[in-house]
Amino acid sequence: MAYNSISEIIEICKEDGISFYEAVMRDTCKDTGHSEEENMTRMSEMWRVMCEASVGYDADLKSRSGLVGGSGRQMEAYMKSGGSYCGEFILTVMAEALKMGESNACMKRIVAAPTAGSCGVMPSVYIAVKKNHGFSDEAIVKSMFVAAGVGQVIAARAFIAGATGGCQAEIGTAAAMTAAGLVALKDGTPEQIANAVAMTLKGMLGLVCDPVAGLVEVPCVKRNVTGAANAVVCAEMALAGIDSAIPVDQVIDAMREVGDNMPSIYKETACGGCANTPRGLEVARMLEKS
Ligand code: SF4
After folding, report:
1. Which pLDDT band, with edges at 50, 70 and 90, does 206 fall under?
2. Is 101's C-beta closer than 6 angstroms to any atom of ligand 1?
3. Centre of ligand 1 from the C-alpha of residue 81, in Å
């Protein structure tokens, strides 16, 4: 993608009187050599696989470490009990994020968005949006291009992998992309999209990548839930007209700075954070012996 900043996209939107989606789609068509219709078909396929992964969730599966599996079903049962603080929308987001993260940990088919470790953030929110707010598949797929455009700028300016920038780069980017998509779905302005991205990333700045035993299971699966919730609340703040005090591109640059200065023990090496707790080390030893 030609865009190296969100402000550049906003500028194009203003100059040409087009939406964020149109700016990203125009560039995608140039980049891929495909028509808008062809690109929509390819993205629709991703959305279809996301939905399929949710339907194909198997709560009886356990991950390699045995620590992951069944939480999506527990969350759905809790949702049905009716005693929660949250409403149905957020509860659905939580259940779907768990299901997707667990499916990844159990080697089932998922869509990396942008990575496999963060695969639960975007589909959980979109599935909940479809179930609870009735948006069409077409509207969802269009907003996925907005999310993808944001993800590409973050990848170009900073990073999207835990190994290079910590979990802020992975779950943080997935959450920022999702927040952007949510604002676009509600016809938010390009500036509101930018504010949602900035606020989401700021909320996840500094998050380390510390997978227990080097497996994308703990704390990864549940981080998909908190990342998704972060995306929703930041999209809501942006739609309410609340601005980010720090402009979005500066926040992305800050994420890069934090990631560059993050010690390697927090970059997917399984040497720090949760991986380095007594329980985390015990699990790693147990897996080594098995
Ligand atoms: S902790 Fe690391 S491996 Fe797990 S989701 Fe975050 S970035 Fe990915």
Report:
1. very high
2. no
3. 31
What burial letters (b/e) apply to 63-83, b meaning 16+ CB within 10 Å? bebebbbebbbebbeebeeee
105 CB near ligand 1 (under 6 Å): no
Give the position, in ligand 1's atom list, of the atom nearest the Cα of 268.
2
CATH 1.10.4100 for the 6-289 domain, yes or no = yes
The reported pTM is: 0.98
- Closest listed residue to residue 149, CA positions, set 234, 30, 233: 30
The minimum-distance atom of ligand 1 relative to the CA of 208 is 1
Domain ranges of the chain: 6-289
Task: Give the pLDDT confidence of 27-71 residue by residue, as tens digits.
Answer: 999 999 999 999 999 999 999 999 999 999 999 999 999 999 999
CA 272/CA 40 separation, integer angstroms: 41
